[in-house]
């Protein structure tokens, strides 16, 4: 039992060592598809680019080949987002174009929308407004087909910014208001409201509608404050820089030059801070990649250690398996021997049972013979008893007739007749009848009188005789003839015997027949 428990423990230990021991937060081949989807959604809806680093790192290190077109397109999109963050324009363009190209073979409009938006951003940075507008409109075209419009909010912002550069203020207002209406109906992208309100403010300002510009700038600041209270991720520095820049221009156009100067100065200060934050963000991005490389190195060292553990565990496993198999073999041999011995014992037992059955059948046959003899003896006893009773009746009749002759005939010598009577009385002596009856009775019922006296030691000899006669089913009249009593006296005797034997709910005949 101890060996078996150790064996099971070793198996569990080996399987545990063989497992990756990865937490659910790490990327594996089994959860790769889910991790790609999560990284894609976080990057697009939450502006979280950290999640894409482990995914891309895993793909690069394992040379993983994906078959799903949509997933492939999303991977290229994530690579483009990464290169955009690192200001790597060449790789940004290559991956963005691959994402757009491959997304054409995918039935998800979302990836088509965000991939075209990325290309629009690239050409926007390169000041190719015509190409940029074309890709933004494509992004909006695909995004508007989806029920969830979250993925085209950025396209409306980016398109509004181009229209601002081209001084198309009405187009800016249309795009910005469309963006606001989308965000009001969804939970995501709430932080984009401050950009739309800032863009609206700039458009109204350039149209000379200063009051509306002020209102939208106030809305933008209000959104920033509310988002900060709700701990929603926003780029506060960039947001205030844009707002202060519009405020500066708005005050300049209203000839409030001091306010304009102060806002412009504040905007310039925030620009410096923003540049530092961008540098820090790139540094953190690169640091995260470096950390992943260090983790990979450590994981390889851990893998080597686990492989050594597996080898040692495997050897122990084989040794324990051999010992276990050997013990099982010995146990099987012992079990076979026991089974064979049991079969032999069963065979002997069957033979003994057959012999016992033959003996039992013989005993039953002999018992039947004995019972037949007993029944015959009992019947003979009853017959003899009845014959004796009849014989006595006949003799008594003769005695009565002789007595009558003695009474009526005076010529016959009385002495001679008395002599005849005495002789006849000797022939039919009750004691002789009883002795002969008792001999025959005890052949059939050897323990009858012993059991009878155990029950009631006070029974007289005549009562014992009476019990014996009752036991052989003699009627009251027959018993009366044998013991020279009247039938009434016989009934009285039976009652007295029943009382001595303490029989209340049982007949005397029933009790004596079972004795």
Please tell me about this protein's structure.
The protein is mainly α. Among the domains are: 31-146, Tetratricopeptide repeat domain (Serine Threonine Protein Phosphatase 5, Tetratricopeptide repeat), CATH 1.25.40.10; 386-514, no CATH class. The protein contains 20 helices and no strands. It has helices spanning 2-18, 32-45, 52-62, 69-85, 89-103, 109-125, 129-143, 153-165, 169-183, 193-206, 210-229, 236-253, 257-408, 414-427, 430-444, 448-455, 461-471, 476-483, 487-500, 508-514. Helix 10 (193-206) runs parallel beside helix 12 and helix 12 (236-253) runs antiparallel to helix 13. The protein is rod-shaped and about 195 Å long. Mean pLDDT is 79; it is low at 17-23.
Question: Would you kindly provide a brief summary of this structure?
Answer:
Helix content is 81%, strand content 0%. The protein has 515 residues and is mainly α.
Gyration radius (Cα, Å) is 63 Å
Helix content: over 70%
As a percent range, the share of strand residues is under 5%
Overall geometric form: rod-shaped
For the largest beta-sheet, the strand count, sense and barrel status come to: none
Low-confidence stretches: 17-23
What is the CA–CA distance across the termini?
A: 64 Å
Structural class label: mainly alpha
Mean pLDDT: 79
What is the number of E strands? Answer: 0
Contiguous helical run count: 20
Order of helices and strands: HHHHHHHHHHHHHHHHHHHH
């Amino acid at each position: 039992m101890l060996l078996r428990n150790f064996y099971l423990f070793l198996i569990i230990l080996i399987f545990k060592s063989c497992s990756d021991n990865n937490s659910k937060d790490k990327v594996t081949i089994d959860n790769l598809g889910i991790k790609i989807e999560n990284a894609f959604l976080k990057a697009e809806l939450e502006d979280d680019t950290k999640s894409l680093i482990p995914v891309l790192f895993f793909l690069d290190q394992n040379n993983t080949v994906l078959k799903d077109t949509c997933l492939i397109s999303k991977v290229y999109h994530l690579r483009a987002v990464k290169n955009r963050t690192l200001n790597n324009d060449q790789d940004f363009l290559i991956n963005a174009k691959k994402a757009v190209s491959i997304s054409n073979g995918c039935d998800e409009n979302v990836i088509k929308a965000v991939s075209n938006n990325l290309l629009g951003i690239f050409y926007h940075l390169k000041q190719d407004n015509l190409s940029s507008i074309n890709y933004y409109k494509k992004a909006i075209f695909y995004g508007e087909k989806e029920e969830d419009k979250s993925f085209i909010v950025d396209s409306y912002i980016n398109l509004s910014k181009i229209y601002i550069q081209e001084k198309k203020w009405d187009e800016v207002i249309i795009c910005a208001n469309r963006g606001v209406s989308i965000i009001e109906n969804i939970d995501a992208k709430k932080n984009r409201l401050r950009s739309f309100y800032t863009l609206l403010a700039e458009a109204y300002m350039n149209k000379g509608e200063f009051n509306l510009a002020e209102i939208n700038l106030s809305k933008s600041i209000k959104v920033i404050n509310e988002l900060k209270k709700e701990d929603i991720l926003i780029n506060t520095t960039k947001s205030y820089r844009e707002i202060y820049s519009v405020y500066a221009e708005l005050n300049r156009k209203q000839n409030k030059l001091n306010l304009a100067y102060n806002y412009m100065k504040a905007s310039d200060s925030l620009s410096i801070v923003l540049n530092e934050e961008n540098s820090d963000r790139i540094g953190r991005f690169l640091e995260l990649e470096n950390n992943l490389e260090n983790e990979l190195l450590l994981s390889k060292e851990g893998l080597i250690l686990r492989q050594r553990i597996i080898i040692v565990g495997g050897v122990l496993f084989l040794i324990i398996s051999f010992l276990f198999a050997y013990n099982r073999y010995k146990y099987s041999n012992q079990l076979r021997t026991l089974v064979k011995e049991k079969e032999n014992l069963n065979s002997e037992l069957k033979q003994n049972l057959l012999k016992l059955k033959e003996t039992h059948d013989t005993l039953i046959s002999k018992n039947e013979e004995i019972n037949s003899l007993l029944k015959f003896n009992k019947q003979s006893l009853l017959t003899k008893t009845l014959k004796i009773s009849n014989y006595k009746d006949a003799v008594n009749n003769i005695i009565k007739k002789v007595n009558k002759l003695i009474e009526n005939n005076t010529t016959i010598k009385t002495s001679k007749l008395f002599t005849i009577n005495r002789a006849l009385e000797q022939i039919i002596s009750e004691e002789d009848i009883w002795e002969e009856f008792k001999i025959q009775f005890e052949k059939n019922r050897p323990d009858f009188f012993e059991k009878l006296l155990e029950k009631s030691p006070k029974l007289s000899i005549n009562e014992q005789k009476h019990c014996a006669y009752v036991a052989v089913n003699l009627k009251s009249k027959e018993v009366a003839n044998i013991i020279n009593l009247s039938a009434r006296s016989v009934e009285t005797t039976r009652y007295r015997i029943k009382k001595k034997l303490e029989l209340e709910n049982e007949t005397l005949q029933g009790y004596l027949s079972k004795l």
